Amino acid sequence: MNKQLSLLAAALLLMQAPAWSADMAAHTEHDMSTMQSEDTKKDDMSDMDHSQMKGMDHSQMQGMDHSQMKGMDHSQMKGMDQSQMKGMDQSQMKGMDHSQMKGMDHSQMKGMDHSQMKGMDHNGMQHDKVPAMQNKSPAAMTGMQSKSMPTSEDGEMKMAPMQGGSAPPDARDPNAYADGYEPNGMPPMGDQHNFGSLLVEKLEAVRTTDNTSAAYDVKAWFGRDYDRAVLKAEGDIDKGKLQDARTEILWGHAIAPYWDTQLGLRYDSGVGPGRGWLAFGVEGLSPYWFDVEATAYVGSDSRTALRLAASYDILFTQKLILTPQIEANFYGKDDAERDIGSGLSDITSGVRLRYEIRRQLAPYIGLEWENKFGGSADYARLAGEKSNEARLVAGVRFWF
User: Fold this and answer.
1) To 5 degrees, how large is the angle CA 288–CA 292–CA 295?
2) How far separated are the first and last CA of the chain, in Å rounded?
3) Among 17, 229, 251, 359, which is least packed by CB within 10 angstroms?
4) From CA 86, how far away is CA 109, in angstroms rounded?
5) Is residue 363 within 8 Å of residue 396, measured between CB atoms?
6) Are 307 and 326 in contact (CB under 8 A)?
């Protein structure tokens, strides 16, 4: 009996097997299609708002095509480093406003073609802050279009005209306070060139109570700022003859601002035998604008001498100038052949008022006093001359 019941159950199972198989296949097909549909929905993120995903690093999504994310606002993704999205074609992101992407470094987007980004507003992008775009020429930005960057027909960027041209009619005259003086050219700078100057300090007529004579005082130099050759010449001419003259040829070397040392030779000529000297001295501009000279001399037969001179310019105006001067000569021993006594020989002082028609040309008038001392005064009296004498002078001063 039990055996018959078992056979009957097996037969019933075999009869139901095809139906169960078909049902299971249908259920399987239904589950798979449902899963594929759900997967497809997951891949299609066209309606997904990634801008709300704070903290999400899109730069690590290799191969992700952001260009298919229509409606996605990348400008709200703060802190997003789009420079690391290699292979990303941002040119297809139509309507995307890159100017709102604060902190975005466009210089790191290698291979990115900004010229294809139609509708992109470059006005808000501060290109001067991007290191890779600094010092770029307009030709290097070919293809890049911007509303604020006009271009010519050949595609080159049009640059705005630079400041320059003539001054406006109401511009202030740079020489307005020069009292008519005009610049006379710039001298060579940097101690790289030789240049020179000639100054005729005095070229004058000298009037005393009983005589009229002439006098000159000339200084010239040629060289550079630190080293130069210097010529000094001074003398008196009376009745067409040279009475007393001193000529020096020196080599000057700058030792400090406004101060030179000078080494060279001096020669005295005129009445009496000539005398030669070795000269060494200093010359410069002392504090309070005094022009100072101090020169020592050593000659033959143990002769020595010292000459001191100083002058100062007092400007009443830019053209009217009063110049006081003083000069003193000392000698170590008597020289009877030239009427010179030892010690303090003479002091000459005076004032000259000049008017500079131009800076290089100035007529002047003045007064001068000569005083002889010691043996020099004795020699003057023996020759029938005065040891103290006042003179009226008039002449011209010029230089070039």
Assistant:
1) 155
2) 153
3) 17
4) 8
5) yes
6) no
Alpha carbon distance 26, 20 (integer Å) = 10
Q: What is the pLDDT of residue 171?
A: 78
R_g (Cα) of the chain, nearest Å = 51
Task: Show the tokens assigned to 77.
Answer: 């993704």
What is the enclosing helix (H) or strand (E) of 41? helix 2-43
The helix (H) or strand (E) run that includes residue 246 is strand 241-256
- CB crowding 88-121: b at 16 or more within 10 Å, else e: bebbebeebebeebeebebeebeebebeebeebe
pLDDT value at residue 112: 54
Predicted local distance difference test score (pLDDT) of residue 146: 44
Contact present, 54 and 79 (Cβ < 8 Å): no
Structure tokens at 17: 């097997």
Going by pLDDT thresholds of 50, 70 and 90, the confidence category of residue 147 is very low
Cα gap 149→157, rounded to integer Å:
7
Is the dihedral angle over the CA atoms 158, 162, 165, 167 positive or is it negative? Answer: positive
Structure tokens at 353: 């008022």
* More confident: 248 or 134: 248
3-class SS at 312? coil
Cross-strand pairs, 215: 204, 236
Residue 58 pLDDT greater than 60, yes or no:
no
When the pLDDT of each residue in the chain is averaged and rounded to a whole number, the result is: 76
Which tens digit of pLDDT belongs to each residue from 66-125? Answer: 545 555 555 455 555 554 554 455 545 555 555 455 555 555 555 555 555 555 555 545
Q: Residue 321 has what pLDDT?
A: 98
- Residue 381: its pLDDT value, please? 93
pTM equals: 0.56
Residue range 38-48, pLDDT digits in tens: 444 444 444 55
Q: 302: closest CA among 279, 277, 281?
A: 277
Instruction: Return the closest-CA partner of residue 237 out of 229, 245, 248.
Output: 245
The one-letter amino acid code at 200 reads: V
CATH for the stretch 200-399: 2.40.160.40
Torsion of CA 241, 245, 251, 255, to 10 degrees: -140
| 3 state SS of 214 | strand
